[in-house]
Automatic annotation (TrEMBL):
Domain of life: Bacteria
Organism the protein comes from: Qipengyuania atrilutea
Protein's name according to its UniProt entry: Lipoprotein
Signal peptide interval: 1-18
Lineage of source species: Bacteria, Pseudomonadati, Pseudomonadota, Alphaproteobacteria, Sphingomonadales
UniProtKB keywords: Signal
Amino acid sequence: MRKAILIAALSGTLAGCASSGASSNIDGGAINGPARLCFNESAFMLPSNGLIVDARSGRYDATINGSIGLISFRMTESRDFVPPENYGPVVYERDDMVVRRVGEGRTSLAVLAKTRDNGIAREELLLRLDHNFGFDSISMEDFFSGLDVRGARTNPQTCTRRFTYG
């Protein structure tokens, strides 16, 4: 019953978050974790207490909407993001990526893939994440440890489901 209420609440709340003109990629209901979900570039390991209730792919981006325990999130990958004028503070970082706050609220994050261009270190905006972390369901570190910014490209055979755009 609790799962059905969560699915209904998330579906209604997050349905308007997808790209316009996008089509749903979930046939037959929600996706339960564990599952490795892949976009064009990145891959995300949805843990066993995770649930994806909506996924949309369009011409310019792909979006998944779901929850992990009691937290809900929306993750979007695109090659056409307009970078914000100013990024906020770093909230998570590792060798291949950096996560920064964006916007006025504490719940919007930008995931930037670390790259090198002619020997110069660069950060490429790859994902946007809107969330309500802060509950006991999952820490930010645990959430991002499941994210592989180049995983869909380097290990496509490991993808349980693909959500591509373009």
